[in-house]
Amino acid sequence: MSGAAMSHPTSTSNPKPDPARHAAEAVPDARRDSARALLRESFRAAVSAADPLEIVAAHLPPPHAGGRTLVVGAGKAAASMAAAVERAYQGSATLEGLVVTRYAHGMPTDHIRVIEAGHPVPDEAGEQAAADILARVKALTENDRLIVLVSGGGSSLLSLPAEGISMADLKATTRELLRCGAPITDMNIVRKHLSRIQGGRLAQASRAPVTTLIVSDVAGDDPSAIASGPTVPDPSTYADALAILRRFGANVPASVQSHLERGARGEIDETPKPGDPLFGRVDNRMIATAHGSLEAAAAVFRAHGIQPVVLGDTVTGEAREVAQVYAALVREIRAYNAPFAAPVALISGGECTVTLPAGATGARGGRCSEFLLSLVVELGGAPGVHAIAADTDGIDGSEDNAGAIADPTSLARADAAGTPARRQLDAHDAWGFFDAIGDLVVTGPTRTNVNDYRAILILQP
C-alpha cells in the first residue's frame, strides 16, 4: 500500500478497559510499560546493526591511487551509505558521483550528489537520476574505479525503462504487481527485464573495476534480487517474467507485454547471466542482512534474561495469514510451555505482502501493521503477550509510521475508541486501529533497510 506520508503523534491518551469484559487484559501499568520498552529497544538494536554510518567503512576497498573514483547507488540507504563513503575516504581519495534515494531519505553530502525519487512506484526523478548514473558509468575507463551502493528500494528508485517503454507504463506495471500482491522477488524479475540498468546491465556498462556494497532487504539475501541486481548476474529470463504476469493475472500495458514477448523470442538481448566474463571485474559485497539484525535484537532479549528464538529472516506470505500461524504457536507456548517455555521472545524477519481487493478504498498502513493487527485479533487479548512489528526503513506502507506495538489491552482500548479490530482488519486499515490507541511506532526514515522486524514477547501471565 502506498500513499502520501502524514504526520501523526506517537502516543495518545489510552482509555481504560472494562475489567468486567476484559479481565484478562488488566495488565499492571509497570509491567506493560517494561515489556513495551523492551520491544522498542530490540527494534532499535535491529536497525542499528544495519546502520551504514557504522558498517560501510570496514567493507570499502583501499583508496584508489590513479584515475577517478565514481560512486553511484540507489535505495533507501543510499544517502547514508554515500555519507559513510565520504567519511571513510576523507582526504585520501577524490570522489564524485550520484545516488538516488526515496523522498525524505536524503542527507547532506559533500562530493556525492543525492537525488530523491519515487518509491514504491517509480517516477521521472528516478528515471532522470538513473539515466545520469548510466551515462557516468559508461564514461569510465579501465584506470578508474566504480563503487556502487545498493540497498532495498533500489528497484523503483533506479528505474530506466527499456526502449519502447514509457515511465507511465512502468508505473502502471509496478502498481498492478503491488495490487496483485506479487512478492518482491517476482516483481524484480519483471522489472529487470524492463530496464536498461538493472539485472547486471550497470556492471555491463562499466569498463572500470566495480565494487558493490549491498544492504540486503530480501529473504535469502540473493544479491540478484536486491534493487534488481544492477551489478549482479541475472539467472532469470524474459520467459520467467511473462510467467509471473500470468500467475498473478496482472493486466499490464501493451508495450510491456510486447517487450517481454519479444525478449522471450530472442529478439531482445537477455540480461547478462552467471558465468559471463564481465563479472570477473565485479566484486559484490554483502555488508548487512536481516539475519544480522535479528541476532542483534536477540542479544537485547538475552541480556534481559529472556530466551530469544529466531524463527528466521525469510518469512513471506500474506501478512494476516502469517500472523495466524504465529498466533497458533503463541497459544501452544501459553498452554503447554512447548516448544518453548515462557518467558520467550519469538523473533523473525522477511517481507510479507498485503493483497488489496480490486477497487479497495480506505486502506491505510502496511504489511507490518496488518500482521500485528491480525495477531491481535487471533490472540483476543491473551494475557502476557506483547508484540512489535515494524519495517527497519522506518516506513510501513502508506503512512509515516515504521509499524506498531500491541499488548493484552489493545483490543479493549480500540473498542473504547470506536475502532474495533475485526472491522479495521477487514478494511485493511491497520494504521487507523493503532493510531486510535496511540500504538504506532514512528521513527522517521532510518536510512537503512533490512526488511521487516517482528518480535512477540510471551511472559508468564
Short structural summary:
InterPro entries: GK-like_C_sf, GK_N_sf, MOFRL, MOFRL_assoc_dom, MOFRL_protein. The chain is an alpha/beta fold and 461 residues long. The protein contains 16 helices and 13 strands.
pLDDT below 50 for ≥5 consecutive residues: which ranges? Answer: 1-26
CATH fold naming of the largest domain = glycerate kinase, domain 1
| Helix/strand order | HHEHEEHEHHHHEHHEHEEHEHEEHHHEE
Overall helicity: 25-40%
For the sheet with most strands, the description reads: 7 strands, mixed
Classify the secondary structure makeup into a structural class. alpha/beta
Q: What is the name of the CATH superfamily of the largest domain?
A: MOFRL domain
Tell me the total number of β-strands. 13
Give the overall form.
globular
Q: Residue-averaged pLDDT, rounded?
A: 92
CATH architecture of the largest domain: 3-Layer(aba) Sandwich
Radius of gyration: 23 Å
Portion in beta strands: 15-25%
Q: Regarding CATH, which class of the largest domain?
A: Alpha Beta
Would you give an account of this structure?
- Residues 18-32 have a biased composition (Basic and acidic residues).
- Residues 344-452 form the MOFRL domain.
- Keywords: Pyruvate.
- It comes from Cupriavidus plantarum.
- With 461 residues, the chain is of the alpha/beta class.
- It has 2 domains: 23-49 and 290-458, MOFRL domain (glycerate kinase, domain 1), CATH 3.40.1480.10; 52-160 and 195-236 and 271-288, Rossmann fold (3-Layer(aba) Sandwich).
- 36% of the residues lie in helices and 17% in strands.
- The chain contains 16 helices and 13 strands.
- Helix 3 (78-88) links the parallel strand 1 (69-74) and strand 2.
- Helix 9 crosses helix 10.
- The protein is globular and about 65 Å long.
- It starts with 28 loop residues before the first helix and ends with a strand.
- The model is unreliable at 1-26 (pLDDT under 50).
